UniProtKB/TrEMBL annotation:
Coiled-coil intervals: none
SUPFAM superfamilies named in the record: Class II aaRS and biotin synthetases
Protein name: Biotin--protein ligase 2 isoform X2
NCBIfam families: birA_ligase
CDD domains: BPL
Cited PANTHER family: BIOTIN PROTEIN LIGASE, BIOTIN--PROTEIN LIGASE
UniProt gene name: LOC110795054
Gene Ontology molecular functions: biotin--[biotin carboxyl-carrier protein] ligase activity
Length: 352
């Protein structure tokens, strides 16, 4: 999910070595100092929860953590710092985001919420200005500097059949949140798009990603949703504010705390609708936002023990959340990701 230096592969080896050495040294030196976490709540009830959790949360053994309360927070020292008060002022949810764990730097926000899931209220979120051991797909680890919005939050579901669709709800909520903020501030639309299944793209470059993990306990799925979004880092690829400066005649920028509040306001509405009526009411909006309608992709089939490449056209999503495609022979099929390719996993009944 936390991608922000993958783009270095496009640059010369000497540049990659210097940049990665600098980042590695920076993150390593920072990881030696004690890590501060601030427990914050929107209302009196959430602040009381913070007082209780101050002595109950667990952390990785390899690092030292100092837990503090919201009253001990100081004003942000940089323009890229997360503003807790501004976030709560913009938040209008009844569940999500109301209990916040904020840190100027963390190994991984996802690890914090996953390790403490049973202690945290549902909808609790952990945010870090800097992250040096972020989690991604296939056990990838990402180093994310200041300027990135990095957060993980908790939710619970009972129907395991629809759990895989949560990442689509989250990605849609984030793109719609960015649209709303641009509209409310009189800014041009950025056009952030969803690349299935869990990436966000801007002007052809990746600017964000989503990782969902779950465990099953007491007849419920405990889900940790992690999101990374490049808001302010112009290099080595692009970010939201760099694109805004390119297309807007005025000097403007989006802030991480505003984006997060807008995200939760949108996500809570989408998630409640999803639980009551399924993904269908959101499907058309999702298709308007993703990159794949009518896209021609190559898949690898097996013919008499030999790999054979075929081309199919993406139509949408299946009920299980995979890609629905149609072959040139009119046969409908379900596509599953297989590394950087697709494979035809199940033939569906009927033809187009």
């Amino acid at each position: 999910m936390y991608l922000f230096f993958r783009g270095l592969s496009k640059y010369p080896t000497k540049f990659k070595f210097k940049a990665c050495f600098f980042l590695s040294s920076l993150m390593e030196s920072q990881s030696e100092a004690p890590i501060q976490l601030f427990l914050c709540g929107k209302s009196y009830a959430e602040k009381e929860i913070a007082k209780t959790l101050q002595f109950q949360l667990q952390f990785p053994n390899s690092s030292q953590f100092l837990l503090r309360l919201q009253s001990q927070l100081q004003k942000p020292t940089t323009t890229t710092s997360f503003r807790v008060d501004s976030f709560f002022n913009s938040l209008s949810t009844s569940r999500f985001g109301r209990f916040l764990i904020w840190s100027p730097r963390l190994p991984s926000t996802h690890d914090i919420v996953s390790m403490n899931f049973s202690e945290l209220p549902v909808g609790a979120v952990c945010v870090a200005d800097l992250q040096f051991k972020g989690r991604g797909r296939s056990a990838n680890v990402w180093e994310s500097p200041p300027g990135c919005l990095m957060f993980s939050f908790t939710l619970q579901m009972e129907d395991g059949r629809i759990v895989p669709l949560v990442q689509y709800i989250a990605s849609l909520a984030l793109t719609e949140a960015i649209k709303d903020l641009c509209f409310e501030n009189g800014l041009p639309q950025l056009g952030v798009k969803i690349k299935w299944p869990n990436d966000l793209f801007l002007n052809g470059l990746k600017v964000g990603g989503i990782l969902c993990t779950s465990t099953y306990k007491s007849k419920k799925f405990n889900i940790s949703v992690g999101i990374g979004l490049n808001v302010d880092n112009k290099q080595p690829t692009t970010c939201l504010n760099a694109r805004l400066q390119q297309i807007a005649s005025m000097s403007c920028q989006l802030r991480k705390d505003d984006i997060l509040a807008s995200f939760f306001n949108k996500f809570e509405n989408f998630f409640d609708l999803f639980l009551s009526k399924g993904f269908k009411p959101l499907e058309e909006l999702y298709y308007q936002t993703w990159l794949h309608s009518g896209q021609r992709v190559t898949i690898q089939d097996n013919c008499e023990g030999q790999p054979v490449d075929n081309v199919v056209t993406i139509q949408g999503l299946t009920s299980s959340g995979y890609l629905l495609a149609i072959g040139d022979d009119g046969q409908m099929c379900e596509l599953h990701p297989d590394g950087n390719r697709f494979r035809r996993y199940v033939y569906l009944h009927g033809r187009a």
